[in-house]
């Protein structure tokens, strides 16, 4: 019984460090480690330090399940932070359910899920998509081309976007999807086709490498008269990868941008850059991965337990000051009240924030039908 | 690539069932407890208007589009569950925790459209509710079509009989008999089939013009 009070509390961290989604997942990994480090410096959990055990699923969804199981069974972790694609999250669900361990999942996704052992800290479609549609339709134009990577998230988001556009007398001129691994030439062809249709803006749901290919091609093809691009997936990381010129003037909706002016954000960005390098940028994925660790540990402390039911009983009571602003978990669905912002890329490759919601918005992961009424009344329940 | 582009030009049309998801009212009939609580929470999470009852009501108001019934408590407590399977008031989804022959027998005899298994799992509730609704609506509209077709078939049999009757009685062609029948039906503002039925029943036909 000498191990009754272990000096360290193991927590699982599961983000790909290699493979197609390694780029955003590495950012999330660093955010997670930064948060754990901060918590440890402040005394951990009642003096016990958190010990992160990191595994690399190599961007293969099938690897997430067995690795989550290994973390629980062999490493005895009490909590898991991680997952990026919906497929990676789905792969972990049966494992965390079986062992009754909590998973904190920091990525925006298409909704229509509730698992009692998951806390969803990224945006649901009603916390960004609607606001972006409203802004673009009111301020930029109504003739729209839609492009995206071909899997469940872009398809579902495009479906919602189309509905919003069409119920606002807008016009979807065309809709094109490419495989996630599409090469530069294929993306260029799509950019060419889109440019020839002269839309008032493009809604891009490309993910991964296709993002930079697309923005670069659009810059090359429309240098004289740029066509605005709106996105939910283009973050500071992608702007950095594509070059500021290619990103300049385009729009993204997200709960968080590096440029958010909360004191907490300014301080943590400074610390992050000092630790990982001045060239590092922070993004919506980074921020969710960062704040969810704090949220989890606060709930564990309040519950005085790692037991999933006990933690979930307390977690909704926590009003956590995240870099994006105050957030909390909605006990109705385990998703988070999040802020909604529209940003436009400036000359520094950062986002000028054009719109911020009045309050953090209530998540509605099962919202099927969007209409202009949502455009008008998409306000939040207050924290 | 052009192949790929053309394949996705047409957006997938959302069925009205999915689109109007939150307009479908649900009645959940189960005794209070952990299972009911979990099902209730999931239904509210999805956003369906929901009412719960226990024990099962005598009558079902037609406001509900789906009735969800906890089957085991019905069987174990020997409750009466009045469900008219020839003309059900709503789609029926059963919540079961066993798959033994007794439970299966009940499920089949109630003609349920879907079954949700316990222990409760959130995934599948939405799909089962929608499938049951679709199945219920389709069956109802098919029944309506069948009734219409039956009455049309009956009418056409009456018309055929009446045509022969008139043609014999007046010594005119079948075609002329039909024209006469139709003309009189129009004058009396009644369906041709109805008039034909009357004529056959009374075995009499009078044409003012003859």
TrEMBL record, chain A:
GO terms for biological process: amino acid transport. Coiled coil: none annotated. It comes from the Bacteria. CDD domains: PBP1_AmiC. InterPro entries: AmiC_PBP1, Leu_Ile_Val-bd, Peripla_BP_I. GO terms for molecular function: amide binding. PANTHER family: ALIPHATIC AMIDASE EXPRESSION-REGULATING PROTEIN, PTHR47628. This is Amino acid/amide ABC transporter substrate-binding protein, HAAT family. It comes from Methylophaga sulfidovorans.
Automatic annotation (TrEMBL), chain B:
GO terms for molecular function: RNA binding. It comes from the Bacteria. It comes from Methylophaga sulfidovorans. The lineage of its organism: Bacteria, Pseudomonadati, Pseudomonadota, Gammaproteobacteria, Thiotrichales. Residues 139-200 form the ANTAR domain. SMART domains: ANTAR. InterPro entries: AmiR_N, ANTAR, CheY-like_superfamily, Sig_transdc_resp-reg_antiterm, WH-like_DNA-bd_sf. This is Two-component response regulator, AmiR/NasT family, consists of REC and RNA-binding antiterminator (ANTAR) domains.
């Amino acid at each position: 019984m000498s191990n009754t009070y272990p000096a360290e509390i193991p927590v699982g961290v599961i983000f790909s460090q290699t493979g197609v989604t390694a780029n955003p997942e590495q950012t999330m990994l660093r955010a997670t480690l930064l948060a754990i480090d901060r918590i440890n410096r402040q005394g951990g959990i009642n003096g016990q330090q958190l010990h992160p055990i990191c595994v690399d699923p190599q961007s293969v969804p099938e690897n997430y399940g067995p690795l989550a199981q290994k973390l629980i069974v062999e490493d005895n972790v009490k909590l898991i932070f991680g997952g990026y694609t919906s497929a990676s999250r789905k792969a972990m669900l049966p494992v965390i359910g079986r062992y009754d361990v909590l998973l904190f999942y920091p990525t925006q996704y298409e909704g229509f899920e509730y698992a009692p052992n998951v806390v969803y800290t990224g945006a649901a479609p009603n916390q960004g998509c609607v606001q972006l549609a409203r802004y673009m339709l009111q301020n930029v134009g109504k003739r729209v081309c839609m492009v995206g990577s071909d899997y469940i998230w872009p398809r579902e988001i495009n479906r919602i976007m189309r509905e919003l556009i069409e119920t606002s007398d807008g016009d979807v001129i065309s809709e094109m999807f490419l495989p996630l691994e599409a090469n530069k030439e294929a993306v260029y062809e799509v950019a060419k086709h889109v440019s020839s249709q002269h839309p008032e803006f493009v809604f891009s749901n490309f993910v991964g490498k296709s993002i930079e290919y697309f923005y670069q091609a659009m810059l090359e093809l429309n240098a004289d008269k740029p066509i605005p691009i709106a996105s939910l997936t283009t973050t500071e990381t992608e702007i950095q990868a594509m070059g500021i010129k290619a990103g300049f003037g385009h729009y993204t909706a997200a709960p968080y941008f590096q440029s958010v002016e909360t004191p907490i954000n300014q301080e943590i960005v400074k610390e992050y850059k000092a630790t990982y390098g001045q060239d590092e940028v922070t993004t919506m994925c980074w921020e969710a991965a960062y704040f969810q660790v704090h949220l989890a540990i606060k709930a564990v402390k309040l519950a005085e337990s790692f037991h999933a039911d006990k933690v979930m009983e307390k977690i909704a009571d926590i009003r956590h000051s995240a870099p994006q602003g105050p957030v909390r978990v909605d006990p109705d669905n385990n998703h988070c009240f999040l802020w909604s912002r529209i940003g436009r890329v400036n000359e520094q490759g950062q986002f000028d924030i054009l719109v911020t919601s009045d309050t953090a918005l209530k998540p509605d992961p099962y919202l099927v039908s969007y209409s202009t009424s949502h455009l008008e009344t998409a306000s939040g329940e207050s924290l | 690539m052009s192949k790929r582009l053309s394949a996705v030009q047409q957006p997938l049309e959302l069925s009205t069932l999915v689109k109007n998801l939150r307009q479908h009212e649900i009645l959940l009939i189960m005794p209070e407890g952990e299972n009911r609580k979990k099902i209730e929470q999931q239904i509210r999470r999805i956003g369906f208007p929901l009412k719960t009852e226990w024990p099962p009501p005598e009558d079902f108001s037609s406001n509900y589009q789906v009735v969800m019934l906890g089957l085991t408590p019905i069987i174990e407590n020997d409750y009466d569950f009045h469900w008219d399977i020839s003309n059900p008031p709503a789609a029926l989804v059963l919540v079961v925790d066993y798959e033994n022959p007794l439970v299966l027998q009940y499920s089949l005899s109630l003609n349920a459209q879907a079954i949700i298994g316990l222990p409760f799992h959130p995934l599948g509730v939405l799909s089962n509710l929608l499938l049951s609704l679709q199945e219920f609506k389709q069956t109802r509209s098919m029944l309506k079509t069948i009734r219409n077709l039956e009455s049309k078939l009956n009418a056409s049999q009456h018309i055929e009989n009446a045509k022969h009757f008139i043609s014999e009685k007046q010594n005119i062609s079948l075609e002329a008999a039909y024209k006469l029948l139709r003309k009189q039906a129009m004058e009396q503002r009644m369906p041709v089939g109805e008039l034909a039925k009357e004529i056959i029943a009374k075995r009499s036909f009078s044409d003012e013009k003859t």
